[in-house]
Write a structure and sequence with these properties.
Layout lengths: L10 H26 L2 H27 L2 E5 L2 E6 L5 E6 L3 E8 L8 E8 L9 E7 H18 L12 E5 L2 H9 L4 H14 L6 H11 L4 H27 L3 E5 L2 E6 L4 E7 L3 E8 L1 H5 L2 E8 L7 H4 L1 E8 L3 H6 L19 H23 L11 H13 L1 E5 L2 E7 L3 E7 L3 E7 L2 H5 L2 E10 L2 E11 H11 L3
Helix pairs in contact: 1-2, 4-7, 5-7, 11-12
């Protein structure tokens, strides 16, 4: 019988912080309400907040004390529970992947968090999670699981080759380009605005802003400078976060499992079995596209929808457009990436343009009603529908190569999705009355991804193209 093992004591703090994360808005609201009242209200809110923090910390300690795990008789056995003792036994052969991450609190102690995924994992949580264990213990656990699975797959008395094959490693130049062109500026600005709305009671930033602007006598130059400096600061923060997040990004393969490692401050290691891949998605940012770069994602079955890594697995963060097929072919030999797509018919151009104009019209009408004569300038917004419809029409396309369907479409990014016939859950066509008159229709293809259905839509193909795709998808 294997010895029961405990998580590192730092788990108490990690458990408490996880609980506090869900309580942060109510706690801030409680402190803010007390701050607006009299002195007795201040004391009451502080006492209530202190009691809540003590309860959360105590719960984290008890949760740590009640948690244990061990590997025994081909199973990962976990016992846990705050008030009621629960047991979870996971057969090792059912474990599809182990994901490792090193947070800021775990790294100083040489610890990692291990997330265990199986094919039947719950949509909202992993099958099991070891919050903080030593690196050597994590490596030993992974070794035991791989050895057990290798014995199960023993064929002709020959063990599966376990050599690690490095497929991709991000270069410093590509990492800097990726960081500089990331789309995280909006997220940073939203976070700053949300923070300012919460700390207004503690930091009188509005009064400080008014005093600073009065020094410059309400200069419009001062306001514009502040906006520009704010945008530059948000961009620099976005660059820094992206650089730290994807630093040392590598993609390798061991025993038919893809291993993704990345991160400087928080190191992560994600394992994706090749047989879980449902589709390949190549996404091209307009700015990165000018430099010939693209990003490659995979749609993977399994995982949980609460984890961003499970929902959107980045396979190649920054790679030259002409280089990614050669990289992917080393482990996805049955996919075709260098193909010629069939475009929508020329009569579909009007439909692409009409769709974008219809979406823009309500805004133009509102501006005309509010500003009347000056609202006529809103007609300049019609330039956008003409531009975006042009790009979306030229980006759209489809192709069939043996057992593979390829669809391409554009929203803001240009996406190309490669799907195998046996991985497609459904194909559906739709058309409006106006589209039918022009013999057009839209195709919708669905594959399974993280317990959900990921849909790919290409609009305004000819009805003969839709019929061809349908015939290909029907069982032989």
């Amino acid at each position: 019988m294997s010895e029961r093992k405990k998580l590192h004591p730092i788990t108490c703090i990690l458990n408490s912080l996880k609980q506090l994360k869900s309580m942060i808005i109510p706690l801030i609201g409680l402190v803010a309400i007390g701050h607006k009242g009299d002195s007795s209200g201040d004391w009451l809110s502080l006492i209530t907040t202190g009691i809540a923090l003590i309860i959360v910390l105590a719960a984290g300690i008890v949760k740590w004390l009640r948690f244990s795990y061990r590997v025994e008789e081909g199973e990962l056995r976990i016992e846990y529970g705050l008030f009621i003792k629960k047991k979870r036994y996971i057969p090792l052969e059912r474990i599809q992947s182990l994901s490792f991450s090193e947070g800021i609190l775990q790294r100083p102690f040489g610890l990692v968090k291990v997330v265990v995924e199986t094919a039947g994992s719950n949509l909202h949580e992993a099958e099991a999670e070891l919050t903080a264990i030593g690196k050597s213990e994590a490596a030993n656990l992974e070794k035991k699981i791989n050895e057990w699975k290798s014995v199960k797959k023993l064929t002709d008395d020959v063990l599966i080759d376990k050599r690690e094959l490095l497929h991709y490693k991000i270069s410093t130049k590509d990492l800097l380009t990726m960081s500089a062109t990331s789309g995280g500026v909006g997220v940073i600005l939203s976070a700053i605005l949300a923070l300012l709305t919460q700390i207004d009671n503690f930091l009188p930033y509005k009064r400080l802003f008014n005093e600073a602007s009065s020094i410059f006598q309400g200069s419009i130059f001062f306001l514009i400078s502040l906006i520009i400096l704010g945008l530059i600061a948000a961009w620099l923060l976005s660059v820094l976060f992206t650089f730290l997040k994807y630093s040392n990004f590598t993609l390798s393969e061991i025993n038919n499992d893809l291993i993704i490692t990345r991160g400087m401050l928080e190191k992560r290691k994600v394992t994706i079995p090749l047989n879980r891949i449902q589709a390949i998605r190549v996404s091209e940012n307009p700015i990165r596209g000018l430099f010939g770069y693209t990003s490659v994602f995979i749609e993977s079955a399994g995982g949980n929808i609460e984890d961003q890594e499970s929902r959107n697995i980045l396979l190649l963060p920054m790679v030259k457009r002409e280089a990614f097929p050669n990289i992917l072919h080393t482990f996805l030999k049955d996919y075709h990436f260098q193909i010629e797509l069939r475009k929508p018919p020329s009569r579909a151009r009007v439909n692409y343009l009409a769709r974008e104009i219809i979406k823009m019209l309500p805004m133009i009408v509102i501006l005309l009603l509010i500003f009347r004569t000056y609202g006529l300038f809103s007609l300049c917004l019609l330039v956008y529908p003409f531009m975006i419809s042009h790009f979306r029409y030229h980006a759209a396309g489809w192709s069939i190569q043996h057992q593979q369907l390829t669809l391409r479409y554009r929203r803001f990014l240009k996406h190309t999705v490669y799907m195998k016939k046996n991985r497609i859950q459904s194909i559906e066509a739709s058309s409006t009355w106006f589209q039918k008159r022009k013999r057009l229709a839209s195709i919708h293809s669905t594959v399974k991804s993280t317990g959900l259905a990921t849909e790919t839509n290409v609009r305004y193909l000819s009805d003969t193209d839709i019929e061809t795709i349908y015939k290909w998808y029907l069982p032989n």
